[in-house]
Amino acid sequence: MQRDFRGLDFDWITIALFLLLVGFGWLNIMSASHTGEVVSYFDMSHPYGKQSIFIIFTFVLIILILALDAKFYERFASIIYILSMISLLGLFLFGKNVNGALGWYGIGGMTLQPSEFAKFATSLAVAKYISDLQTNMKTLKDQVKAAGIIALPAIIIVLQNDTGSALVYVAFFFVFYREGLQQIYLVVAVFLVLLAVLALKFNVVVAVLVAGLLIFGHHFFGQKKRPHIVQPIAILLLCLAVSFGIKYFYNNILQFHQKDRISLWLRLENDPQKLRELKQTILYNLHESEKAISSGGLTGKGFMQGTRTTGKFVPEQHTDYIFSTVGEEWGFLGSALLVILFVALLLRILYLAELQKSQFSRVYGYCVASILFFHFLINIGMVMGLIPTIGIPLPFFSYGGSALWAFTILLFIFIKLDSNRINEW
Amino acid sequence: MRKLLLLSTITLVGLIFIARLFYLQVYNEDPYNLLDDNAIRKVYDYPKRGYIYDRNGKLLVANQPSYDVMFIPREVKPLDTLELCNLLNISKEDFINFYNKAYRYSPRLPSVFIPQLSRMEYAVLQEKIRKYEGFYIQKRSLRDYQTTIGANVLGDIGEVNNYIIQNEPYYKSGDLIGKQGVELSYEEELRGVKGIKFIQKDRFNRDIGPYKEGIYDTLPEPGKDISITIDSDLQEYGELLMRHKHGGIIALEPSSGEILAMVSAPSYNPNLLVGRQRSRNFTKLYNDTIAKPLYDRSLKAQYPPGSPFKVMSALIGLQEGVVTTQDQFSCRHGYYLGSRRLTACHSHVSPISMNQGIAQSCNAYFVNVYRRIIDKYDKPSEGMDVWSNHVKSFGLGDYLGYDLKIGNKGRIPDGAFYDKWYGENRWSSTYNISNSIGQGEVETTPIQLANMVAAISNRGHYYTPHIIKSIEGDTIDEKYTTPKHTTIDKAHFEPVVQGMFDVYNTGTAYNLRVPGIDICGKTGTAENFMRINGKRTQLTDHSIFVAFAPKDDPKIAIAVFVENGYWGSRFAGRIASLMIEKYIRGEVTMEAMENWILTHSLENEYAKPYSGKEFGINRQSALQVIDRITKDTVINPVSTRKSPFNQ
C-alpha cells in the first residue's frame, strides 16, 4: 500500500474509536456527577467540568506525541522507563495518600498518579528489551530479565498499597507469550488458577484430586513417549504444596478487604448474618451497580434520566463504576455497543501490531492491546459482578486526568509508530 | 498459533460481557416501573374522603383530623426526655422502647412515635414540639361518625392488608380502605384519587428534589359525597327495638327498592372502630363468637322462612291454575296422608279457603296446594322445577344483586336437587311438603324475604334492593331503577294481599293492629336446631314476621327476624308493626306494644345452649323482663360469655 501523505497517514479507525470512547465517556461522567442544572461544561467544581479540561489537554498531548519522531520512542525507551521508576519511588518521599494508597503527587490543586504513566514507560522498555537482537525470549535468562522489567514497577506499586494497579502488569504475559515464551507457562498458569479456585472454593483434597486426574490422564493417555512415573508423582506433590500455600496465603497474608472480595466472588460465605453485613459494606458497590445496570433494561432510561445515577446510589460512579451509568441510562443496546467499541479497538490494535515490520513496534502494540484489554476485562467484569472487586479505571472512559493522559500517550505512541511502519529504519 | 491467544481471549471476553449484559438487562429484567423504583420517593397526597348522608340529608359520617407524632431517630438530639414523656403521657421505658424499635427499622426514615393523638393532646404538644429536634407532627384524616347507629350499614375503614396491596396497585402499605358496609361498596367513589409526587432520593435516602421537575406528579381528586337510602330515624328505632335480641330487620321502599332500614342485632357503636382503639375493639368484637356483632344478620343469616313463605304457595297455586280462591281444604289439626299426620296445625275453623288459610296460617291448606302444584306434572321433578322457577322469580334462592358486598344465596330446591337426593323419580310431592310452609329445604335471608314482600306489595314486580341514594356528580347503577317482574300474573296478587290484610284483621296478627294504617302481614314461626356437644338439639323457635303498608299504596315492606323469639307475632310482629307506624306516621302511638318490646330480653334464651345444663324450649322458656331500654342505655357490645366451641 502506497501512503502518499506523509505526516497524516495515521490509522484513522483507531483514532475514531478513541474519540468515540472519550466522548461517550464524558457524557456519562457528566450524567454521573452533575448536581442540578448544568451551567457550564467547564464548571471546575464538578468532575465533568474538570474532565472537559483534561480532554482538551489530551489533544495537546496527542499533537505533541505525533509531532515527535517515531525513532525517538525507541531510542529513549530506557530513559523514559528509568524516569518513570524514579517518579514512582519519589512517592515514598513526596507522595500523597488517597484512600489508603500512596499513589499521588499533589501539584497545586491537581493530583498526578505516576503509576498510570508507568504503564506506557514499562511497555516501551519491554518492547525495547525484547526487540534487541541479543534477546531470545525462549531462554530462561532473558525471560527472567524481561520479567524483572515489569516486576520493578509492580513491586513498588504494591508497596504503595495499590494492588489493583500492580495487577495490570500481569497483562504482559500475553506479550511474552506472543514473543516466544514456552507453552508450558500458559499451561502452568491456567493450572494454577484452577488449583487456587478449587482449593478455596472446596478444599485442598478436591483440588489435588482434580489435579491428579489431569496429570495422570496426561501421563497415561496424552503422550507418545511416557516419562518415568516419578515425574507425575512429583508434580502432584508440588500441587499439594501449592494448594496449601494458596490456602495459607489467603488466610494469613491477604488483607481483610481483599479476602472478603474473593470470598464473595467465589461465594464462600454461607452465614446469612455475615453475608448481610457484607452486602452493606463490601458488596454495597457491586449490589448497587448491578441494580443500576439491570434497571436500564433494553433501551435504558435515557441520558441524564437514570434515577439511581441521579440519586448517586453507586459510589465512585464517575470513576471505576462508570459502566453502571452506561447500563442504566443507555440500556443493553448502549452498553453492548460500548463493549463492541472496546473489542473493536483492541482487535484493531492487534491487527496493526501484526502488520508491523519492526519488532519494537509489534511488541509495543501488543503491550498496548494487552494493557487496555486487562483494564477492560477487570473493570467491566467487576462492575457486572463477574470478577472480584479490583479498583482500576476503564480506559478513556472513567473520570481522571492521569489515567486519561496515560492511556492516550500509551495509544498514540503506537499510532505514531504504526504511521511510520513503511519507512526505512 | 501464538498470535491467536490474545485475539481469542479478547473476543471471548467481549462475548461473555454481552451475554452477561443480556442476562442482567433483558432476560432478568422486570419491566421498569417508576412506582417500584426505590430511588424515587413517592409522596402521596390523600384527598378528603367523601361524606355519607342519610336519605333525608342528615350527615352520618364525616372526617376528623388526627395527629401522629413522628420522628427520625438519627435526627433526634439530646432532649429533656422527662418533659416529653409527660407531654405524651408515656413512661421513660416506653420512650426508650419506641426509640430503639424505630432505630432498628431505620435510623434515617420517619417512624410513628405516638399514633393518633386527640385534639386536646395535640393542642398541648403543638406549642412545644419545635423544641425536640427530629420530632414532628403529621396530620391524618380519620372517620368521624356523627351517629352511634348503623355500624353494619356504614361499615368502617382500616389499613389495607397485603392481599389487597398485591392485587390492587392503587393501594400502598398504610393506605386506608373501606372494610365493610357502604365504605366498602362505594370505596372508589368515597376515597377519590390520591395525588402523588415523585421525589428523587440519594443513597442515604435523603430527598434531593422533584423527579424530572415534577412532570409525573398528580393532584389529588377529592372523594365524592354520597347519600344512602337509610332513614336514620327508622334505623335508630329499629336498633333500639332489637336490643337484647338477636336477629335482623330489613325495611324496603317497594316503589324503588331502597333500603330504609337494615338492622342487625346485636350491633355496636361505629365509633369503636376509629382511632387508637380500633384494633383492640375490633379484636373484641371479632372474638365474640356467640353474639357475633360483626356478622350482619340482616344480609347473611340464612334461616328457614317459615309461614310467610306460604303466600308463595298460594300465588303459585293460582298461577298454575291448580287452586281457586274458593277451594276449601279440611284440616284436622294437621295434614294427613292416609292415617299418618305429615304436618301438625293449630286450632282454627275447618274446612278452610285461601283467605282464611293465609290469615290463620293453616299448614294443611298449603300442603294441599303444594301437592297439587307438584302433582300437576307427570314427573315430580318437572313440577318441582316449575315451582322453583316461580319462587326464584321473586329474587329468592340466589344473590339479590344489591350493592352491599356480603350476603347469602339462600336455598330454593329444584327437581335436580331431589333427584340427586332420592334418585330420579324415586320421590313424590309428599317427600318435601315442608317446603310449602317455609320449612324443609327452603332457606332465605331477611333481605330476600323483605324483597319478596315488596314484590307482593307491588303486585308482581320489584326493584333490586340498594343502599345508594345518590352520588355527588354521578348517577347510580341503572339496574337499581329497572323493575324486575315475577312470573305470577298481577291478578293473582289481590286475593293473597287480601289474605295478608286479614292476618291483621282476623288472623294471627290481630293483636298487632295499628289504628289508621292498613297493614298486610304474615306471621312465621320456624323450628331450628343447633349442634351442642355433637347432639342435634332443638332450640326455641325463631320469631318471623313480614309486612307491608299501606295496603293499596305501599310505602314500606319489612321483614323481621328474631332468633328464638318463639312465635311470629310475639317479637317480630310487634317490632314490624312499631317500625311501620314509626315510618308512616313519624311517631309511635302504640305505647304498650313499644313498652313490651323494650322491657323484654331474650338474652337468657341465647345463653341456654352455652350453659352446659339441660334446658327447655318454647313453652318451657320463661320471658326475661328487664328495665325499659332507652336510647341512652349503654350496651356492652361484647359478650363476656365463653363459647364451648372455642375453648
TrEMBL record, chain A:
Subcellular localization(s) per the UniProt record: Membrane
Pfam families: FTSW_RODA_SPOVE
Organism taxonomic ancestry: Bacteria, Pseudomonadati, Bacteroidota, Flavobacteriia, Flavobacteriales
Transmembrane segments: 12-31, 52-70, 76-94, 146-172, 184-217, 229-250, 330-351, 363-390, 396-415
GO MF annotation list: lipid-linked peptidoglycan transporter activity
Record-level GO cellular component terms: cell division site; plasma membrane
Keyword line: Cell shape, Membrane, Transmembrane, Transmembrane helix
Bilayer topology annotation: Multi-pass membrane protein
PANTHER family: CELL CYCLE PROTEIN, PEPTIDOGLYCAN GLYCOSYLTRANSFERASE MRDB
Protein's name in the database: Cell wall polymerase
GO process terms (BP): cell division; regulation of cell shape
UniProtKB/TrEMBL annotation, chain B:
Penicillin-binding protein dimerisation domain ranges (all copies): 46-207
Matches recorded under Gene3D superfamilies: DD-peptidase/beta-lactamase superfamily, Penicillin-binding protein 2a (Domain 2), Penicillin-binding protein 2a, domain 3
Record membrane topology: Single-pass membrane protein
Subcellular location: Cell membrane; Membrane
Biological process per Gene Ontology, one example term: regulation of cell shape
Enzyme class of the recorded protein, top EC level: hydrolase
InterPro entries from the UniProt entry: Beta-lactam/transpept (IPR050515), Beta-lactam/transpept-like (IPR012338), PBP_dimer (IPR005311), PBP_dimer_sf (IPR036138), PCN-bd_Tpept (IPR001460), Penicillin-binding_protein_2 (IPR017790)
Keyword set, alphabetical order: Carboxypeptidase, Cell inner membrane, Cell membrane, Cell shape, Cell wall biogenesis/degradation, Hydrolase, Membrane, Peptidoglycan synthesis, Protease, Transmembrane, Transmembrane helix
SUPFAM superfamilies tied to this protein: beta-lactamase/transpeptidase-like, Penicillin binding protein dimerisation domain
Source species, domain of life: Bacteria
Cellular component terms (Gene Ontology): plasma membrane
Enzyme Commission no: 3.4.16.4
Domain Penicillin-binding protein transpeptidase span(s) in chain numbering: 247-576
Pfam families noted in UniProt: PBP_dimer, Transpeptidase
Chief location category: membrane
GO MF, any single term: serine-type D-Ala-D-Ala carboxypeptidase activity
Protease keyword on record: yes
Protein's recorded name: Penicillin-binding protein 2
Organism for this UniProt entry: Gelidibacter maritimus
